Amino acid sequence: MKKRKLFIPLLGATTVVASVGTVISCQQPQNSESQAVVDNLRWNSGVWNTVSAEKDAMTINLYNAAKKQFDEMIKQTDILELDKVKVENDKVVVSNTSDNKSIPVVFMDIDETVLNNFAFQNYLVLNKDVYNSKNWNAFIQDKKAIKIAGAIEFIKYVYSKGGVVMYNSNREQENQLVPTRENLISEGLDAKYLPDWVFWMQGVDLSKTEAPWKHIKKDSNGKRIKSEKEERMNLVNEKTWDLSEYNGSGNKISFKTVMRVGDNFDDFNDIASGKKLNPERNKVLNDTGKLFGNFDISVKGVKYKKNENGQVIKEDETWSESYVLIGGNSSYGGWESGLAQNFYGIGADKQVEALTNALKTNLWIPKTPVK
């Protein structure tokens, strides 16, 4: 589950706002009209994501298109080498890259992008429970997520073409990597594609120059320090990596991210869009929209960084990228928290007001009354 606030309503008196390690509650009138509106959002999205043919058809469609997008991105032979990744029976071996050449990487989110977690969402709704770090961790440890249609086939395709898939998830690197890997294997992804170094999940210590995936960054109180997904991708692009302990791979390997795949707009450039209201998130889309569904290697990638003063700086990459948004997650995400400041803490009445205001931004008003 992404480490972002997730609102799951109770079918009764209490609305709960949850983020990892934090639960805030506020009382609402039982069976209020506002609460009913918010409750229905969870039921409808849960049912659609669980049983609709449209959900699987959509993701199969997107992943089939993503294969073709990847085929175009790897035509950047001036910067890429496609003969450095060898899939050999039960292992993947990665050789050293030449000077100024790199292996193409697809960075993928996991939750609602590779694994469908609506078994967990449905549990919360049907049991009048709320998200918290304990029940979410219990779900991960049980390894009951199912694959998103088309995702596993796409991952194998990337490797068959000389690329590598890395996982840019906000699951916890420290205690959720093993069950996540086992869940992916149970859903059909071979273990050989899942060495530790492909996991760049929440907690990875980006200050480590050697094998950050082995280290967890914590503060003086032992609390895990968060990082942005784009921060992790930028680091992978900028360094050379020693993978010699993994099946005899090389010790000087360069990677370049040529594709990003996620279900949340914040999976792509969260340094700029994370924790922002929707008007600000849409401004970021003005810069990055050219990359969604991109097939043109003359269109360069976009990255954001923070300078020493914390200001967000946009830069163009020297190579092309393509973005793939796996839609269908209308249950939670940055789009919802972006409806209003402190959306999850303002109560059902204010939440419905924010939802209403969103609808009014694109509203038909008949010229004459319709009977």
Q: Which SSEs are present, and which pair or pack?
A:
Blueprint lengths: L5 E2 L6 E6 L2 E6 L5 H19 L1 H21 L11 E4 L2 E4 L8 E6 L6 E2 L1 H9 L6 H10 L3 E2 L3 H10 L3 E4 L5 H14 L42 H10 L1 E2 L11 E10 L7 H4 L4 H11 L11 E7 L5 E9 L1 E4 L8 H4 L9 H14 L11
Parallel strand pairs: 6-9, 6-11, 11-14
Antiparallel strand pairs: 1-2, 2-3, 4-5, 7-8, 10-11, 12-13
Helix pairs in contact: 1-3, 1-11, 2-5, 4-6
Could you characterize the architecture of this molecule?
The protein has 371 residues and is α/β, with parallel strands linked by helices. It has 11 helices and 14 strands. It has helices at 33-51, 53-73, 118-126, 133-142, 151-160, 173-186, 229-238, 270-273, 278-288, 334-337, 347-360, and strands at residues 6-7, 14-19, 22-27, 85-88, 91-94, 103-108, 115-116, 146-147, 164-167, 240-241, 253-262, 300-306, 312-320, 322-325. The strands form 5 sheets. Strands 6, 9, 10, 11 and 14 form a 5-stranded mixed sheet that branches. Strands 1-2-3 form a 3-stranded antiparallel sheet, with no helix packed on it. Helix 1 crosses helix 11 (347-360), helix 2 packs parallel to helix 5 (151-160) and helix 4 (133-142) packs parallel to helix 6 (173-186). The longest helix is centred in the N-terminal third of the chain and has 21 residues, at 53-73. It is globular. The protein starts with 5 loop residues before the first strand and ends in an 11-residue tail after the last helix. Residues 2-31 have low confidence and may be disordered.
